[in-house]
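User: Can you predict the 3D structure for this chain?
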Amino acid sequence: MNTTISLPFVVQKHYKGRVFHWDLMLQRPIEGANPEDRFLATWQLTVEPVMENLDSPVSALPLPDHRGIYLEYQGPITHNRGYCQIVDCGRYDLLEYSENLWRVRFVGRQLIGLFELKKNTVGDSWTLARCPQTDKL
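Assistant: Here is the predicted structure, written as C-alpha cells:
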C-alpha cells in the first residue's frame, strides 16, 4: 500500500451480566458508495486497550465484521446479547494492509501510536502489539 489512508475506529466494552470484553473495530479500507455500507473488521480483546496495558502484545480474537453503525452506537445488543459502551474512538492511519497484517497509527482519546494487528502462524488468533517508533512509519 503506497498511500496512507485515514479511517475511523472504535473500542467498545461489551457487557453481558458480569462478563465483559473489549471489541476493537476498524473500518475496512474498501471503497464503497456510502460510508454506512462499509464494514468494521473486529477483534475481541480480554485486556482493555489503553496504553498502560499494551506494553506487551495482547491476544486478539477475530470476530465477524460488524456493521458501520457500531462506530457510534451504544446500548443494548439485539437478541439479548448484552450491552455495548464506547470507551475510545478516533481515526487510524493505515500504513500497511494485507490479509494477515494491519500496521496502523491510532489517533484516539486513549489509543495512540503505531501498532500491528498480526495473524498468528498457528490457529485463527491474532496479536495486537505496539510498534517501535521509526522514521519510515
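Residues 12 and 86 are 4 Å apart (CA to CA). The longest strand covers residues 83-98.
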